[in-house]
Design brief:
It contains twelve helices and twelve strands. It is an alpha/beta fold. The protein folds into two domains: about 10-250, Type I PLP-dependent aspartate aminotransferase-like (Major domain) (Aspartate Aminotransferase, domain 2, 3-Layer(aba) Sandwich), CATH 3.40.640.10; about 255-380, Aspartate Aminotransferase, domain 1 (Alpha-Beta Complex). Strands 1-7-6-5-4-2-3 form a seven-stranded mixed β-sheet, sandwiched between helices. Helix 11 (about 315-325) crosses helix 12. The chain is globular. The protein starts with 9 loop residues before the first helix and ends in a 5-residue tail after the last helix. The relative contact order is 0.13. The protein binds pyridoxal-5'-phosphate. Pyridoxal-5'-phosphate (PLP) binds near residues 201 and 204.
């Protein structure tokens, strides 16, 4: 890739990063390379392509683009899924070490951490990540501090700079990992707050079209990157070349999608907060939200996930989902289409997540259409 010689804004980078070199008649987009092995003679050394589990030219444009967005020149690492990236990051906890993790975090990451801790590999300390005093009290002896902010699905906001610094004070060798899936690097750049390793489910906003499952890790520390690259090569959870291409294709419109969905989310959150069938709205963009001030300091926007608690409990919440015609009832988030689900329908969801909580992933449709559909579904509840 040819880097420009002047500063490039993030909403340009999503378009310009990860392009092939500017040579006459070269393709404007990177090709998909379908090869499981690469020419080579003599000793295989670090950096050789060698074999398709170690590297594939199809991964690199996305890896470069993502790291540029997160603010480092060290290329990111694509993985087969967000959870494959989680697996690599959790492997950083040494045997007998201490993992401090939010009690509300991506469900798969929590389940994996709990299973590894149950095998006796390390100690797991779960905390309310918005309660800084509680997190600080859990830090002595920490090996890995896991951050997610906003959290899934409670949308709690962590004090990322303070907690990152405190983890290093508690243990200079500690690694601070942050799942930045909900915010995207356009809204929040954890490396600037002292985080060592940023994790993405590329499946969500980055790819953005609900048609690919991928994950990624980004760090500015060469030693940490080599360790994670080794983990990926040996454990084998690699990306398919076509999926990597789709992710880069999706990334090109990230800025437009995020701009639109964030604006719609704020509008919908304000209106939903005033609806009598809604018991509570969680959205860091609302001034009355407990995470609002912190979010304003750390993020350039508030994301486009909203959580609602519906008056009338679980059955009323289910009735809202069923009555919707435009919103798609499905798990996942971050795609162009608006999705909704009652989180506790998943058996592994933490029981501290209310039964009547609906998670909305706001897409890029016409905002008034999205509102009309929600309003009609809420008005159809017997209580309102
Ligand atoms: C979806 C998600 C993951 C897991 O990613 P997959 O691509 O589904 O494996 C991790 N963290 C967050 C916040 C997510 O939303």
């Amino acid at each position: 890739m040819d880097a420009a010689e002047f500063p490039i804004a993030p909403d340009t980078l999503v378009v310009s990063a990860g392009r092939p070199a500017r040579e006459h008649d070269a393709a404007v987009n990177p090709p998909i390379v379908l090869s499981s092995t690469f020419h080579g003679t003599g000793q295989v050394v670090d950096g050789d392509r060698a074999y398709g589990r170690y590297s594939n030219p199809s991964w690199e444009p996305f890896e470069e683009a993502l790291s540029a967005l997160e603010g480092t020149e060290l290329p990111g690492l694509l993985f087969a899924s967000g959870l494959a990236a989680v697996s690599a990051a959790l492997d950083l906890v040494p045997p007998g070490g201490v993992l401090v993790m939010p009690k509300h975090a991506y469900q798969g990451a929590l389940v994996m951490a709990e299973e590894l801790a149950a095998k006796g590999l390390f100690e797991l300390r779960k905390v309310d990540i918005a309660d800084t005093a509680q997190v600080l009290a859990a830090l002595p002896g920490v090996s890995v501090l896991w951050l997610e902010s906003p959290t899934n699905p409670m949308l709690e906001i962590a004090d990322v700079p303070q907690l990152s610094e405190a983890a290093k004070q508690a243990n200079p060798q500690a690694v601070v990992v942050m799942d930045n899936t909900f915010a995207t690097p356009l809204v929040q750049r954890p490396l600037e707050f002292g985080v060592d390793l940023v994790l993405h489910s590329v499946t969500k906003y980055l790819a953005g079209h609900s048609d690919v499952v991928l994950g990624a890790l980004v760090t500015s520390k060469p030693q940490l990157r080599s360790q994670l690259l080794h983990y990926r090569s040996i454990h084998g959870a690699i990306a398919g070349p076509f999926e990597a291409w789709l992710a880069l294709r999706g990334l090109r419109t990230l800025a437009l999608r995020v701009e639109r969905s964030q604006a719609t989310a704020l509008l919908l959150a304000e209106r939903l907060a005033a609806h009598p069938a809604v018991e509570a709205v969680r959205f860091p963009g609302l001034p009355e939200d407990p995470g609002h001030q912190r979010a304003k300091q750390q993020m350039t926007g508030f994301g486009s996930i909203i959580c609602l608690q519906i008056a009338g409990g679980q059955s009323a919440a289910d009735a809202v989902v069923t009555a919707l015609q435009l919103w798609t009832p499905a798990t996942s988030l971050g795609g162009v289409e608006s999705l909704i689900e009652r989180r506790r329908r998943h058996v592994n969801e933490p029981t501290t997540v209310p039964e009547n909580l609906l998670r909305l992933s706001v897409g890029i449709e016409n905002p008034e259409d999205l509102w009309s559909d929600l309003q009609r579904a809420l008005n159809s509840l017997p209580s309102s």
